[in-house]
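BUG: 3D viewer hangs when loading the predicted structure for this chain

Environment: internal workstation, default settings.
Expected: structure renders.
Actual: progress bar stalls at 90%.

Input used:
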Amino acid sequence: MDWERAWQQIVRRDATAEFFYGVTTTGVFCRPGCKSRAPLQRNVRIFRTTAEAQAAGFRACKRCKPLLKPTDAMAKVRAHIERNVERRVSLAELARVAGLSPFTVQRMFKQAMGVSPIAYQRALRADGLRKALKQGASVTEAIYEAGYWSASRAHEGAALGMTPARFAKGGRGERIGFTTARTPFGWMVVGATGRGLCWLALAGSGSEAEASLRDEFPEATLKRDGGLRAMVDAALASVREGTDLTREQSLGPALDLRGTVFQLRVWQALRAIPRGETRSYSELAREMGMPRSTRAVARACATNRVAVVVPCHRVVGAGGALTGYRWGVERKRELLAAERS
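Structure tokens produced before the viewer hung:
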């Protein structure tokens, strides 16, 4: 271990440093980010693990709690958020629950879960609202049971892509324009609300493509709109040339994605994969700072509603195996071949 670098991390109280230090004058060992009084350099000893520090005769600091495992602390924080979804939980409150500093809780939670504590709470509320609406609860009942204080807050925070009332009714009252077209990758259907592109799927026939949209929004008013052919062309251009559909201002609406905070984050990460390249699910999870969330990342890829534009075809199985594509493995192979040509 580089002693000088480690010392500078102690001086900066670097909470991301992965070692421990003991102070010979107190007999205590701490995390580098500990807020206790700064020690003199000559009194400091560096340890890679808590076991090494204890074997050397040092006891754990009661302030930064170096013996508390991150997984234990995060389990406490997560459980506290889940028990209190209906009210705002502050970072200071979570810090008291974990016995750590607010900064450390924020950093560790994002590393473990991929989102901040407040974003996680919002996602829980959104999930609760969706479930209640799908189970037949009244809109008002579902909104307040999920922890929202008003219908407007529920609409803003739940990422439904439409009002809670319309979501509960399978999109009833929602107007969605759509068009279908034959492409080199099969038939494509695009659907767009006034807020943006909400559906892009691939199928074996025009009728299958249209049916996928109707299944997703069974109660919405669907109207064929030939003007949306430009979106089909732009989606194909994104495969051939790497252009971004949502940056083509002449095409009108951007994306109207519907999902949890975690899903939206995964879909954004998919769009960051360069054209012609692939990532395994575990690689994508690591790039997002969530190495233990491979399965959750895979589930989010599988629920992508906008094929090609949100390029879930660029994620492959271990060893490069072409597995798990919502619109067929052969289409996945063709899309990747087209991007690499």
